[in-house]
Amino acid sequence: MNVQDIMTKQVKSVSPADSVKKAAEIMESVDCGSVPVADQGRVVGMLTDRDIVIKAVARNQGPDTKVEQCMTTQVVTVKPSTDAREAAGIMAENQVRRLPVVESGKLAGILAIADLARVNIFVSESGEALSQISEPNRQSNAVSPH
User: What is the pLDDT of residue 140?
Assistant: First the structure.
């Protein structure tokens, strides 16, 4: 089964010039924690709720802050023809829960770990991907008691 068989095709995105408020409203409307950033249909970044908090709110920047000031620019993508099992591995390797799907350089959809979980034959792969995504790959950022 390929990514195109299970991906979400109707994807909401923001542009780099949009406000983080607009991005947050989209995240709320689709009940997710990230949104692709596209410039004329080409994926140029991803913006997460964490990006907004760490890169805007914590720096006293307001809701009119531009997405380009907070977005992550190193984005891992897959093609619609990518095997879904391979996509689960890519998610695990890169510790991401959502992958933009790009065809001919343009945003064609998005694949979420939940999409993999909905397809019964991928439950073990998506479960493994989720466990690897959730594992810290660097030193823990948890605060230890003194």
Answer: 35
pTM of the model: 0.80
What is the DSSP track for 38-89?
EETTEEEEEEEHHHHHHHTGGGT--TT-BGGGT-B-----B-TTSBHHHHHH
Interatomic CA distance for residues 78 and 85, integer angstroms: 12
User: Please, which residues bridge with residue 103 across strands?
Assistant: 106
HSE toward the beta carbon, residue 100, CA cutoff 13 A: 29
- Which segments of the chain have a pLDDT < 70? 120-146
Percent of the chain with pLDDT over 70: 82
CB-based contacts of 13: which residues, under 8 Å, 6+ apart? Answer: 35, 36, 37, 38, 43, 107
Residue 139 phi/psi, 5° resolution?
A: -55, 135
Confirm or reject CATH 3.10.580.10 for domain 3-134, answering yes or no. yes
Contact 99, 116 (CB under 8 A): no
Residue 100 CA to residue 77 CA, distance in Å, equals 5
Q: How many helices (H) and strands (E) does the chain have?
A: 5, 4
Proportion of the chain above pLDDT 90, given as a percent: 70
